[in-house]
Design a protein that fits this description.
By secondary structure, this protein is α+β, with helices and mostly antiparallel strands. The chain has 3 domains: 53 residues; 118 residues, no CATH class; 216 residues, MetI-like (MetI-like fold), CATH 1.10.3720.10. The protein has 13 helices and 11 strands. Strands 2, 3, 4, 5, 6, 7, 8, 9 and 10 form a 9-stranded antiparallel beta sheet that branches. The protein has a two-stranded antiparallel ribbon with strand order 1-11. A hairpin with a 2-residue loop joins strand 7 and strand 8.
């Protein structure tokens, strides 16, 4: 009985972990595919079906050719597979058949067929009630009169060890010889193409200043609303908290007009100053400060400590989880902000671009280079992911311990 219970428990745990792993993979796959594509060659990004592991085409240098030639796994007539080099990628091939035996076809380059009777007086033959032009070809030393039933394009592959041995095959249906590889040069190329180094510096500067500004204003406002008594405090807090419900699209026009009046249009200050005040941050810090016992603060006041000393020496060390949570949310918002920079910063002013603007322009400039677009996206995504992973412990602790008292 006990062993059967353990078996059922083991199966239940196994199924639970299997389902969790499956959904985790589904959630992480787009991120993993982005990273893998950012390290691929351009030709590998459009491969179908898509694959996760970056692959590099293998090439060989042959005598008589200036550039290395790509290698392919060619299936020969006897069924064996051998590595051949592609020397011509598009040879026009005619598909011919004898008028009396249309099921037997021959594939020859168009240059190896001649119109029967000449181009001006080409002979014809009736096949299934339809007149078909005749062509002269040579197969295994035998001259035949055939009709053309189709046309295609094939590639000419040669044996690198014996260049005299060649075959014609469909290039798209012939698998290339490839090895797993990484191409980190994509990151340097995308930085040189769009100047992402400057955009990265601008984004980091704006984000750091916004995070620091919001932490300062939220801590001071939260402490004042949580501990200082003054007329209309609660009413002021309710009104200030109500601003969270105002959609940003309602504020965009008056805020832009204010920036025009101040003269901050197309300047970095417009990306920082309007966003260092946040009702959410003030609410978060107020709720956390309320949880700190008043007896500690009263004892510090009796000992002669000022309000600023109490805030710096007692409240701030105790509110590290709330500060980390607010810093994480502010970092993610400031780093990924797109609409306001698009409105306030001219697209031609590349010196003041942030990452979101540069990526929007890169999407158009490198539309045929998915590996470069993914490299730019990875540059923009990796820092927030790292910050969130580092601050996750504080975020969970704050979510449990803050916002429970009013």
């Amino acid at each position: 009985m006990k062993s059967s219970y353990r078996l059922v428990q083991w199966i239940t745990n196994f199924l639970a972990y299997a389902v969790l792993i499956l959904f985790a993979y589904i959630m992480l796959f787009p991120f993993l595919y982005m990273l893998a594509t950012s390290l691929k060659y351009q030709t590998d990004t459009f491969r179908y079906p898509p694959r996760l592991i970056p692959m590099e085409p293998v090439s060989v240098q042959m005598e008589g050719y200036d550039e290395p030639l790509p290698l392919y796994n060619v299936t020969l007539d006897d069924g064996t597979e051998k590595q051949y080099a592609l020397v011509e990628s598009s040879i026009k091939i005619g598909v011919y058949a004898e008028p009396n035996s249309p099921e037997v076809t021959y594939q020859l380059p168009l240059s190896q067929s001649r119109p029967t009777g000449g181009a001006t007086n080409q002979a014809t033959v009736e096949v299934n009630g339809k007149a078909e032009k005749l062509f002269d070809i040579e197969v295994d030393g035998q001259k035949l009169q055939v009709i053309k039933v189709g046309q295609t394009a094939l590639g000419r592959f040669v044996d690198p060890a014996n260049p005299q041995e060649s075959v014609l095959r469909n290039v798209r249906l012939t698998p290339a010889v490839e090895n797993p590889t990484l191409r980190p040069e994509n990151y340097s190329e995308v930085i040189d193409l769009q100047g992402l180094d400057r955009s990265l510096i601008n984004t980091a500067l704006v984000t750091i200043l916004v995070v620091i500004g919001q932490l300062i204003t939220s801590v001071l406002g939260g402490y004042a609303l949580a501990r200082l008594r003054f007329p209309g405090r609660d009413q002021l807090f309710v009104v200030y908290l109500g601003t969270i419900m105002i959609p940003f699209v309602v504020l965009i026009t008056p805020l832009y007009q204010l920036m025009v009046a101040i003269g901050w249009v197309n300047r970095m200050a417009a990306l920082v100053i309007p966003w260092i005040f946040t009702a959410y941050g003030t609410f978060l810090m107020r709720q956390f400060f309320i949880t700190i016992p008043k007896e500690i603060e009263e004892a510090a006041l009796i000992d002669g400590a000022s309000r600023l000393e109490i805030l710096m020496r007692i409240f701030l060390p105790a509110s590290v989880p709330a500060l980390a949570t607010l810093a994480t949310f502010t970092f993610l918002y400031a780093w990924n902000s797109f609409f306001w920079p698009l409105v306030i910063i001219n697209t031609g002013n590349r010196a003041n671009h942030v990452l979101t603007l540069s990526l929007s322009i890169l999407r158009g400039r490198a539309s045929d280079n998915a590996n470069l677009v993914m490299a730019g996206a990875a540059i923009a995504i990796l820092p927030p992911v790292i910050i969130y992973m580092l601050a996750q412990r504080f975020f969970v602790e704050s979510a449990v311990s803050s916002g429970v008292k009013g």
